[in-house]
Amino acid sequence: MGVIGVPVECLDLAYPHVAYAITKVREKQPRCPTPEKVYQALLDKTMQLLLVVQDDQTVKATAVTEIETDGGNKVCRVVALHGEDMSEWFDDLVYHVEQFARQNDCTHLELQGRLGWQKMFKQNGFQTEAVIMRREI
User: Which terminus has fewer CB within 10 Å in the chain: N or C?
Assistant: First the structure.
């Protein structure tokens, strides 16, 4: 299993995975950008696409990152993360995202996810800074 960064030239081949992943993420996290916005940002190179791929080229996970300045800190933020069998690839993905963030002079790495992911996040050195609560009105 490996983590690959998808160059813009290959985006159309990977886009079905992106669209599916973003749609699934938006079911739980409606603040996530739409697949169309993500696609445009990937084309504009303001977001980056990573795929976790098995040896047989089956895509196990999709991650979309962006780099922003937040409170004076340069932050690499994972804006969308979706996949199967997370325990098999999460550590590897975090390693690759962190290397990318360091190469781009980021001082922080942020991930958003469901509360059930907290244990795995903490095992990788993340701390919970906020909890978003929501209800329909």
Answer: C
Residues 50 and 96: beta-carbon distance below 8 Å: yes
Stated pTM of the model: 0.87
Question: What dihedral angle (degrees, nearest 10) is formed by the CA atoms of 96, 94, 106, 7?
Answer: 40
Long-range contacts of 24-30 (CB under 8 A, 24+ apart): 24/82, 25/80, 25/81, 25/82, 28/114, 29/112
Checking 99-106 for CB contacts under 8 A at 24+ apart, the result is 100/5, 100/48, 100/65, 100/76, 101/67, 101/76, 104/67, 104/74, 104/76, 105/74, 106/67, 106/74, 106/75, 106/76
Strands 108-111 and 73-83, how do they pair? parallel
